[in-house]
Amino acid sequence: MNKMGWCWALVASLALAIAAGPAEAQQAPRVASTGLVSQEGDFVVHDFHFQSGESLPEVRLHYTTLGKRANDANGRTTNAVLILHGTGGDGRGFLRPIFAGVLFGPGQLLDASKYFIILPDNIGHGKSSKPSDGMHAHFPQYEYADMVALQHELVAKGLGVDHLRLILGTSMGCMHSWMWGRRLRITWMR
After folding, report:
1. Which of 3, 40, 69 is closest to 128 using CA atoms?
2. Which of 4-8, 53-57, 154-158 has the lowest mean pLDDT?
3. Rounded to the nearest 5°, which phi and psi values hold at 77?
4. Per the CB 3.0–4.6 Å rule, which of 41, 76, 112, 152 could disulfide with 67?
5. Measured between alpha carbons, how far is 167 from 67 in angstroms, rounded to an integer?
6. What is the pLDDT of residues 122-177, one digit of tens each?
7. Residue 31 near residue 38 (C-beta atoms within 8 A)
8. What is the DSSP string of 99-126?
């Protein structure tokens, strides 16, 4: 097969993978198949002001956690890990065996028996507040900076975590992790 033939074969393979993706994403994550026990909750941020200048009296942030927090003698959480999803995803997507099955199990890199793993649903995603909850076009315009600010509210105020061992993400979540780094660097320099 010539170079152009390989290129078209690759494009066709990617198209089939993309077409198959949404059907799989609609299925509920199978936590049982990974042997992991997760907990879900909601945290409400009151009187949140968006970068656009708009505000909402309440913003609901849904989250899933794995593992238990470990605290030092001063009560500071020492084992928290924040994992951020991409556009259109949600935190529970990380519970699928393709991710959880190779990272969160016993002896694996982010072993849930050692780490307190936080998987938030960003605003506009999953079970967090979003325009389709009823406000539609009247929902405030939001951007990445708002999403990161809300993630920080959830982690710091909702879960009482003031130290993260690791922040990582996929796609949009990766960009958010870079923004967290910038946000923390500014905070530490003050």
Report:
1. 40
2. 4-8
3. -65, 130
4. 112
5. 16
6. 999 999 999 988 888 889 999 999 999 999 999 999 999 999 999 999 999 999 99
7. yes
8. HHHHHTSTTSTT-TTT-EEEEEPPTTST
How far from 108 is each of 95, 100, 173, CA to CA, in Å? 14, 10, 22
d(CA 160, CA 138): 31
Q: Which residues pair with 167 in a beta bridge?
A: 82
Cα dihedral: 143, 147, 152, 154 (round 10): 150
> Do 163 and 76 meet the contact criterion of CB atoms below 8 Å apart?
yes
Q: Residue 118 class from Cβ within 10 Å (0-12 exposed, 13-18 middle, 19+ buried)?
A: buried
C-alpha to C-alpha distance for 12 and 128, rounded to whole angstroms: 35
Q: What is the DSSP string of the chain?
A: --HHHHHHHHHHHHHHHHHHHHHHHHSPP-HHHHT--EEEEEEEEEEEE-TTS-EEEEEEEEEEEES---B-TTS-B-SEEEEE--TT--GGGGGSHHHHHHHTSTTSTT-TTT-EEEEEPPTTSTTS--GGGTTGGGSPP--HHHHHHHHHHIIIIIS-----SEEEESTHHHHHHHHHHHHHHHHHH-
